[in-house]
Amino acid sequence: MFGESLARSWWVLMLYGVISVLFGLSALVWPGTTVIALTWAFGIMALAEGITSILALFNRDVRISKALLFVYAVASIIFGLLGIFHPAVVASVLLVFLGAWLVVAGIYRILLAIRIRKHIKGEWMIALSGVLAIVLGVLFVGYPAAGLLTLAIWIGAAALIYGILQIVASLQLRKLSHLAV
Predict the structure, then answer these.
(1) Which residues are within 8 A (CB) of 59 and not within 5 positions of it... i.e. 6 or more apart?
(2) Which residues, other chains included, contact 157 with Cβ-Cβ below 8 Å and sequence gap of 6+?
(3) Do 47 and 72 contact (CB within 8 A), yes or no?
(4) How large is the C-alpha radius of gyration of the chain?
(5) What is the pTM of this model?
(6) CA gap 32, 34 in Å, rounded
(7) The pLDDT value given to residue 67
(8) C-alpha span between 84 and 39 (Å, rounded)
(9) What is the DSSP letter of 117?
(10) What average pLDDT values come out for the chain (181 residues) when binned by 10 residues?
């Protein structure tokens, strides 16, 4: 019964797949526009979250500190407006934060590899991942525009692969729906 229902819904996976393939291709062809669009979308979500949080301030049943909720609401609204009206700046700043985190994570991985080297084999892979994280982090901080475009290309490639997999899965389900009839 469940299999038949799932098989009849093959077109949903196909739709997801086609949308994902189209998004992936557009991200690969226009990575700069993709970064702006994604940042703008995050800005809208943050703005909506901020407005919702402001409205929650007037709800007596809210169990969180009103001061904390107010700070969160204001920060969300500011981030949202910046994301909508200055998406390239927000994306660059976020990439710099990502770069800084990668440097810290890379240092941690190297120290971890040194610390556990007597207990496991292949600790050099952990250290290497740390070195690569540091290099990527430094590149993101040093060249944020190139980092943003690279990130958009990776997102596009992932969306393209995901979409193709969804289309293949939908075709498999479609075959099941013909067998069930």
Answers:
(1) none
(2) 24, 28
(3) no
(4) 22
(5) 0.68
(6) 5
(7) 92
(8) 7
(9) T
(10) 68 92 95 92 94 92 87 95 94 90 94 89 91 94 89 93 94 77 53
